[in-house]
């Protein structure tokens, strides 16, 4: 995630000064399918610009992108993975369900390994 966001930061840092300003931020948000107003841009900048210099550095950019993208994607992936392992749908993954899932992925474990 960090390497992808570093690459995106470089791409959107149009003037190559190592920072993203609100004028550059609008292109990022549009690429994400949003059409922010100037007020929304100012609000986002105020939230992510932790050192209050009026621009976003790489660290602040990665944090913003994680909050915009990372949390949802990771949580959705975890829910899907959990549901795939929870074959009886009881909200728990039993030793039996875990063993079957691991065997499906080609892993063989003894009873002692699973406990």
Protein described:
The structure is a single chain. The mean pLDDT is 81. Helix 1 packs across helix 4. Helices cover 64% and strands 0% of the residues. It has 115 residues and is mainly α. The two termini are 33 Å apart.
Topology:
Elements: H1 2-12, H2 22-31, H3 38-48, H4 58-85, H5 95-104, H6 111-114
Please supply descriptive tags for the structure shown above.
6 helices; elongated; 115 residues; mainly alpha
Number of helices: 6
Determine the fraction of residues in helical runs and give it as a percent range.
Answer: 55-70%
| Gap from first CA to last CA | 33 Å
| Residue windows where pLDDT falls under 50 for at least 5 positions | none
- Count the E strands: 0
Overall geometry: elongated
Could you describe the largest sheet, including whether it forms a barrel? none
- This entry's quaternary arrangement is single chain
What value does the average pLDDT take?
81
Percent of residues in beta strands: under 5%
Radius of gyration: 21 Å
Order of helices and strands: HHHHHH
Secondary-structure content class: mainly alpha
Write a brief caption for the model.
The protein has 115 residues and is mostly helical.
């Amino acid at each position: 995630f960090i390497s992808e966001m570093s690459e995106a930061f470089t791409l959107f840092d149009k003037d190559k000064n190592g920072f993203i300003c609100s004028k550059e931020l609008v292109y990022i948000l549009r690429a994400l399918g949003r059409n922010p107003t100037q007020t929304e841009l100012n609000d986002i900048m105020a939230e992510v610009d932790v050192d209050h210099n009026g621009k976003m550095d790489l660290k602040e950019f990665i944090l913003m992108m994680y909050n915009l993208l990372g949390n949802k994607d990771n949580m959705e992936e975890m829910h899907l993975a959990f549901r795939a392992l929870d074959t009886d749908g009881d909200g728990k993954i039993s030793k039996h369900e875990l063993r079957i899932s691991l065997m499906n992925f080609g892993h063989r474990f003894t009873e002692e390994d699973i406990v």
